[in-house]
Amino acid sequence: MKSKTVQEQAWIDQTAAFVKSKFEGEGTGHDWWHIYRVWKNAQNILDKKSNMDAFVVEMGALLHDIADFKFHDGDESVGPKEARKYLHGLGVEPARAEAIVHIVEHVSYKGAKVANKMKSEEGFVVQDADRLDAIGAIGVARTFAYGGSVGSPMHDPSATAELHEDFEAYKNSRSSTVNHFYEKLLLLKDMMNTPEAKAIAEGRHAYMEQFLQTFYNEWEGKQ
């Protein structure tokens, strides 16, 4: 992978501190520690890659949730704008700043049947790192944390999951938290871009399947 300069590492350290101060204590599962885990996931994938721009990957991971559409009335343009403004303030060269902005713009899951518009290899790494944090034990915890924060019912046996055809339908969905597993979490294993993330996703996916079976058994008083 392309090594980082002293200046680039300083920007990464500065950005980590900035993001930590901005998101520490947030309670929906999109807090600093989510961003930290995505950053570490991205670094772990990056370690196995060659010809990859580590600076773009790490900055993309740190800034990927700088202004998530879920917290800006569904406006997906806010995050890229905030990222571009921040990177301009640091003095990052325009071409690499735009590579990072591209990641911020396209990293999010936007529906089961919505095409992935991520174009860069660096973006695929960050997207996988983010999706890994949405599955497994932490994914389960984050899903219920977010569902509770927006008032979603934990489970409604009468409600069916929906595989959304477009982003508008996905972001306006008011489904139960358990349905979210079928609308997103259980689909992510097969949406990973890199071999490294695919391998990790297998175990996390199996954990979620086991969790759901236990959940349904307990719901009916069977165990």
From TrEMBL:
InterPro entries: HD/PDEase_dom, HD_domain. It comes from the Bacteria. Residues 31-135 form the HD domain. Gene3D superfamilies: 1.20.58.1910, HD-domain/PDEase-like. It holds the Pfam family HD. This is Phosphohydrolase.
